[in-house]
Design a protein that fits this description.
- The structure is a homodimer.
- Chain A has two domains: 118 residues, PurM-like, N-terminal domain (60s Ribosomal Protein L30, Chain: A), CATH 3.30.1330.10; 148 residues, Phosphoribosyl-aminoimidazole Synthetase, Chain A, domain 2.
- Chain A has nine helices and twelve strands.
- Chain A has a six-stranded mixed sheet. In chain A, strands 8-10-7-11-9-12 form a six-stranded mixed sheet, sandwiched between helices.
- In chain A, α2 runs parallel beside α3, α2 packs parallel to α6 and α4 crosses α5.
- The first copy, chain A, starts with 12 loop residues before the first helix and ends in a 32-residue tail after the last strand.
- At the A-B interface, α1, β2, β3, β4 and α3 of A face α1, β2, β3, β4 and α3 of B.
């Protein structure tokens, strides 16, 4: 059980979490705790079995000045986003949400009316997905944060990050990059256009799509929370495959460049939209994908395919050659010293 | 759906949560979400039914500079305490812990070795109770906090706060007040004696006692997190009864006065030990209580009894007359303006 060295600001969150998950797996093997665990930590949600029924469980936090800045979102939007972010993890497993719990840490000088609106919105957003908000916790603290636990029942097959095979096609739901573009506009001191802002303020967890993809035989899935390329990396690593993605196929709302980044840069690296990325076996043809999209009322776009193990992740330009992207994915603990992630910590 | 006025620092957390719980119940009634909910928000844990089996679910947060101050606890103790605090809610329902999830918010300048020790301790403390740590979340933020979600299976009857009847006897597990006394010593600039410090640093969730009390026919239970009198108030309000407690019977470790408070003041108002308070019907006599205590290897002390509705909560001195206490229970949002709770916010 090696101890990880260094401070969290100087190394990647994901490397830390990978090491932690391995140690947790070791612990479970040696202690025997965790019987009934079908999908362990490290995936979008854990899946456990109780009473013969699989349950998907996830927890996710929204922290002021890390994930959003005061003034960006109305209190109700904060609640909606906090719930959607957690439900999106359930969507990636194909679960049906049943219950949510919200733990709020709130500075004592905030008016109760603000907390009321946040929690009302959490309850309403939970209900919209068919879940009930059944509990939570309230603490005061220096910075506002909302930690949402979401629990769903598996009524069909369970999707994990692992399972994709070379030759599988990669599909994403909806469009990518608009929410991340909104953040960049805010960080630049501007006010994002409503269509972009809405994608950050009110993301929609792709629950029906997750279930439909699972039922159709998807081999793996993940929600795009860190950025398409980053999350594709997680899926490929878990599945032991490579991948190539065609930049021109990335579905996007943003058509113009913002700061140094093009619309497809945002689509390739912006994770804030909480769309799903899934791998579909080659037997599921274009017609089947179109039917699937229609059935769950969401755009589904084939953006590339899984390749042989060891081939890495390639983003292909329109000429079919590798192209770099001007933006990187999200790492909560990244800072200037970290070479990889772009380190979007919202400045105070 | 009345909106609560005022800021969180000027009014009680419990009044706010009561109002919220009522609104959540209204929402569930009108939306139909929340089928399978056996015990709703407002109790120590929510209890839901899935696959024919009841599950108890709770979430609780430990926030630096609110619940503890830097330097009080070693990283491993933080993990132990965070898990115990959540498991204690399960204990109060009579559940058997199965899974935990830990959402950590960590300042980016903290060494990863510290986070490692915290999370390792969370995993180890979970396993000691028979639960596996199956997931979590990692975010950075300005203040360290740990939000633990704990899920347990109900293998016997479910205990709630409501259900106590006039004439029921009130019992508590273990001893009361030592952890709160440790906090007062710390706040006074001292270092608490090891026996007191240990009760704050390593509370033990009374899981076996919770199950044994439920199986024996306890009519209601709550964990003593806010302070005995405060939590007895919650139990009495939920049950619609009054109560009287004999000060001389309160089991305590602290025998000397600390600052202005006597040992029994700490026992009456210190909730940091996470003991259980339960109501037992009169048919369970002293011998049965002794046998129960032996079976689950914990002290059980009869401290008083439930009285008729509307009689309030009375703390009786040794002469049988009401006596005030020099200390009050814990309210996270209390401040100097608040007349009720003592407002122990740990100063920066």
């Amino acid at each position: 059980m090696a101890e990880v060295r260094g401070s969290l600001s100087a190394r990647g969150e994901h490397a830390f979490l990978d090491a932690l998950c391995e140690r947790l797996a070791e612990r479970r093997r040696s202690s025997g705790a965790g019987s009934g665990l079908l999908v362990g930590p490290g995936d979008d949600a854990a899946v456990v079995e109780t009473g013969g029924r699989p349950l998907a469980i996830t927890t996710d936090a929204l922290v002021e000045r890390v994930h959003f800045r005061p003034g960006w979102l109305a209190p109700a939007e904060l609640g909606v986003r906090a719930i959607a972010v957690a439900l999106s993890d359930l969507a990636a497993t194909g679960a049906t949400p049943r219950w949510t719990l919200v733990s709020a840490i709130v500075p004592p000088d905030r008016p109760t009316s603000e907390l009321d609106r946040i929690l009302e919105a959490c309850a309403a957003a939970s209900e919209e997905s068919g879940a009930a908000m059944i509990g939570g916790n309230l603490s005061r603290g220096d910075a506002l944060s909302l930690t949402v636990t979401a629990i769903g029942e598996m009524e069909g097959p369970t999707l994990e990050r692992r399972g994709a095979r070379p030759g599988d096609r990669l599909v994403v739901t909806g469009t990518l990059g608009a929410a991340a573009a909104a953040v960049d506009v805010w960080l630049d001191g501007g006010e994002p256009p409503p269509a972009l802002r809405e994608r950050f303020a009110r993301p929609v967890a792709r629950l029906a799509a997750g279930r439909a993809l699972a039922a159709a035989g998807a081999t793996a899935a993940i929600d795009v929370s860190d950025g398409l390329l980053a999350d594709l990396g997680h899926l490929c690593r878990a599945s032991g495959v490579g991948a190539e993605v065609e930049r021109a196929r990335l579905p996007r709302l943003v058509q113009v460049a913002i700061r140094d980044a093009s619309g497809s840069d945002f689509a390739a690296t912006g994770g804030e939209d909480y769309e799903l990325l899934a791998a579909l076996p080659p037997g599921i043809d274009d017609d089947a994908i179109t039917a699937l999209a229609r059935a769950c009322d969401v755009e589904l776009t084939v953006i590339g395919r899984c390749t042989a193990p060891g081939t890495g992740i390639r983003l292909l330009g329109e000429d079919g050659r590798d192209r770099a992207t001007a933006r990187r994915g999200f790492d909560h603990f990244a800072d200037g010293e970290s070479p990889g992630p772009r380190g979007r910590r919202v400045p105070d």
